[in-house]
Each structure stands twice: as C-alpha cells, then as structure tokens.
Amino acid sequence: KKQVGFVPPERLRDAQGASGEIRGEHRNMASDRGEPFKKDTKEHGIEEPILVGVEPSGDSFKTVIIEGNHRLDSALELGLDKIPVEVHYFGKTEDFPIEIFKNKSD
C-alpha cells in the first residue's frame, strides 16, 4: 500500500533514517554543502517527496525515512508548515491505525 500527500514535518521528527540516521546528525548537513542546501529549500521548498517507510516492529510499527533525511532536517530547521511525502507500508502495517496524514484535531 502507498499514500502520497503533505504532512507537517514535525510529524516525522522522531523517524530515523533507514540506515540509522538520526535527525540533525548528518555529515553532509554539517559540511559546506549544508547551508546552500538549506538556502535552496527556503527559496524553493521541497519539491521531491520524502520517501517514508512504515515497517512492522513487534506488535506495533516503526516509521523510517527511506530517502530524504536532509530534506526533512532542512524542513524542520526552517519551520516549514508542510512537506510532500510518499509513504510505503510494508508487512501488514496497513492494518495499524497510522495517523501520518490525519490532522491532530481529527
């Protein structure tokens, strides 16, 4: 199952990268490439959706960023309201009441 839409970046703040990346601790964002990347994000927003995976984890699920860790970090740092995401559900996670796309007021 797959969903495409927009979400507040805060909703993905706790999601690790698929390779174990942790928010704010990317080597490229700390290098001289980080600032131009953030400037571009500020000027143009995020055009390519962040790839999110929802995987089984015991009796629950975990959310991981498959592709787009730098984009998510920039969005969080810049305080963007919404970002494009493409969410892929693995295993039987589509059966869980996952609320990535729901408004907190729902």
Biggest sheet, spatial arrangement of strands: 1-5-3-4-2
Average pLDDT score = 80
Largest β-sheet summary: 5 strands, mixed
Oligomer: single chain
Helix content: 10-25%
* Low-confidence runs of at least 5 consecutive residues: none
Strand content: 25-35%
Strand-pairing-aware structural class: alpha/beta
Could you give the distance between the termini?
22 Å
Shape: globular
Order of helices and strands: EEHHEEHE
| Count of DSSP-assigned helices | 3
Radius of gyration: 14 Å
Number of strands: 5
Report a brief summary of the structure:
With 106 residues, the protein is of the alpha/beta class. It has three helices and five strands.
List the helices and strands and how they pair.
Elements: E1 2-7, E2 16-17, H1 27-30, H2 34-44, E3 50-57, E4 60-67, H3 69-78, E5 83-89
Parallel strand pairs: 2-4, 3-5
Antiparallel strand pairs: 1-5, 3-4
